[in-house]
Amino acid sequence: MLRGFYTAASGMLAQQRKTETLANNLANVNTPGFKTDQTSLRAFPEMLLQQMEERPFPSQNGKAAASYTSIGALNTGVYLQETMPLFRQGDLKETTLNTDVALLDINLPINPDTGQAGSVFFTVMNANGETRYTRNGNFTLDSEGYLTTGSGLYVLDQQGNRVQLSSDEFTISEDGYITGKNGETARLGVGYSDDPMAMVKEGDGLFRADGELADAYTAANVSFKMQQGFLEQSNVDSAQTMTEMMTAYRAFEANQKVLQAYDTSLQKTVNEVGRIG
């Protein structure tokens, strides 16, 4: 019976964590470039139960031999194995702001090992001087004219240098070249990952890669373009996410009722079984 407690509790914990992930997706439905997280549930290994007993066999000293009778398999619970971002292209929304830019995927090769398409990202620098990657092109200019993200991280060019402009009157071509009002030029840095699932999601729309990503401009068979004055919206499907949240909530309730049934049975066992009338 106690094993049943643990099995039902593991189901409740798994559904709670799934609900938290879905709630985070809904909270970021309007965050530019946000990639929805998908959850993967997995059952613990099953246990094969057997009954062991002794069966006597003819002998002078009356010894008995061990005998095993198969009872069946017992599942020992479930857990949330991992969360994985979905790198599907989000819709583009026009903002008419010069500092907003969106990446539009055109052709991204399928990785033969994973069966998934690669992905391209803007390159930025965090506060520790480390390269990070994002799909959020909601940029701005700081007081020194550097192009930064909404959270203040520097946007990098193709050579890994910070992009500095004299004013917000600049143009960005479809192939990433920036031309400023006073003639300054740069090319936005874009990294390409052939296995984006291997990247680590850090929050605030940032991803960390194991080493530097390849230059997307020179990567084989990779094609994309940039749209100035547009932002890529999150790829969260709010209707589907709400449906999944209701399903997770119902599963949580079902496990909760099982737990309550076990608790009632234990209470009867403790308080009534063996009572002397």
Automatic annotation (TrEMBL):
UniProt keywords, alphabetically: Bacterial flagellum, Cell projection, Cilium, Flagellum
Pfam families reported for this sequence: Flg_bb_rod, Flg_bbr_C, LlgE_F_G_D1
UniProt domain Flagellar basal body rod protein N-terminal: residue ranges: 5-35
Domain Flagellar basal-body/hook protein C-terminal: 227-271
Domain of life: Bacteria
Domain Flagellar hook protein FlgE/F/G-like D1 span(s) in chain numbering: 118-179
InterPro entries (UniProt xref): Flag_bb_rod_N, Flagellar_basal_body_rod_CS, Flagellar_FlgE/F/G, Flg_bb/hook_C_dom, FlgE/F/G-like, LlgE_F_G-like_D1
This protein's record includes keyword Cytoplasm: no
Record localization: Bacterial flagellum basal body
Protein family (similarity comment): Belongs to the flagella basal body rod proteins family.
Keyword Oxidoreductase among record annotations: no
Protein's UniProt name: Flagellar hook-basal body protein
